[in-house]
């Protein structure tokens, strides 16, 4: 368990498979478009593309990172291609999440390995765009994505906060480790039925993103109690 964070200044949310559960079809469609890009644009057989996509995910955290390194793709073209979908086919407004986010007074940001345009479409489809002060996308990070350690440092610089002042909410345990090294409070949204294999980089585990409201309230309350205790005479 992490120490109580001091004066939380930002709650940062991952986007895909975090703000909505797996199984909506969004990520499945993105994977289909990635494979189509690799077979059509890079002239690869489907079998080779599937193996390469998996290898790049394991080695670099994203398919794009591997393609940039080894195939010298145009990142803007790639990102536009693999996010070309009508989000209304997959997502609906989430009134419960809208209420939860309304109750979190701390500034909130989106941090995604996708594009700002994709994030805007997802947030609009869920009916929660108004809650986020900032969207940080992969272009803001020079097309380097999570879990590369340097982008976490860059995120904190963009937000103007220290690690212990930031909460990161993610569906990927792999993406929480670098955040925890910087002192961020890490929250894993684990929507799957099976238990987490290794949750040591998650300070907290929740089953649904809607549970984050109560968690943030508890963290802020604990922080205020700590501050009050520090004002009392020894």
Describe what you observe in this structure.
- With 234 residues, the chain is an alpha/beta fold.
- The protein folds into two domains: 10-22 and 92-231, HAD superfamily/HAD-like (Rossmann fold, 3-Layer(aba) Sandwich); 26-87, Orthogonal Bundle (DNA polymerase, domain 1), CATH 1.10.150.
- Helices cover 43% and strands 10% of the residues.
- The protein contains nine helices and six strands.
- The protein has helices at 26-40, 46-60, 63-70, 75-82, 95-102, 116-126, 149-159, 177-181, 212-231, and strands spanning 10-13, 108-111, 134-136, 166-170, 185-189, 204-206.
- Strands 3-2-1-4-5-6 form a six-stranded parallel sheet.
- Helix 1 (26-40) crosses helix 2 and helix 2 (46-60) crosses helix 3.
- It is globular and about 55 Å long.
- The two termini are 26 Å apart.
- The relative contact order is 0.17.
Question: Could you write a compact summary of the structure shown?
Answer:
The chain has 234 residues and is α/β, with parallel strands linked by helices.
């Amino acid at each position: 368990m992490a120490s109580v964070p001091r004066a939380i200044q930002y709650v940062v949310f991952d986007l895909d498979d975090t703000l909505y559960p797996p199984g909506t079809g969004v990520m499945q469609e993105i994977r289909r478009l990635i494979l189509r890009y690799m077979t059509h644009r890079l002239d690869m057989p489907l079998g080779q593309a599937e193996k390469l996509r998996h290898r790049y995910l394991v080695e670099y955290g994203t398919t794009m990172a591997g393609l940039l390194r080894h195939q010298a793709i145009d990142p803007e073209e790639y990102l536009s291609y693999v996010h070309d979908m009508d989000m209304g086919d997959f997502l609906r407004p989430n009134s419960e999440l809208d209420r939860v986010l309304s109750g979190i007074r701390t500034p909130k940001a989106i941090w995604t390995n996708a594009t700002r345009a994709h994030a805007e479409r997802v947030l609009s489809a869920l009916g929660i765009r108004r809650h986020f002060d900032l969207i940080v996308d992969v272009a803001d990070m020079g097309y380097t994505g999570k879990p590369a350690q340097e982008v976490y440092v860059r995120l904190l610089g963009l937000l103007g906060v220290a690690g212990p002042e930031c909460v990161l909410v993610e569906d990927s345990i792999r993406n929480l480790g670098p955040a925890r090294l910087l002192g961020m409070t890490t929250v894993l949204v684990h929507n799957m039925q099976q238990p987490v294999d290794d949750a040591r980089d998650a300070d907290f585990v929740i089953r649904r993103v809607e549970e984050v409201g109560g968690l943030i309230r508890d963290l802020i309350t604990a922080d205020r109690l700590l501050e009050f205790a520090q004002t009392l005479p020894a």
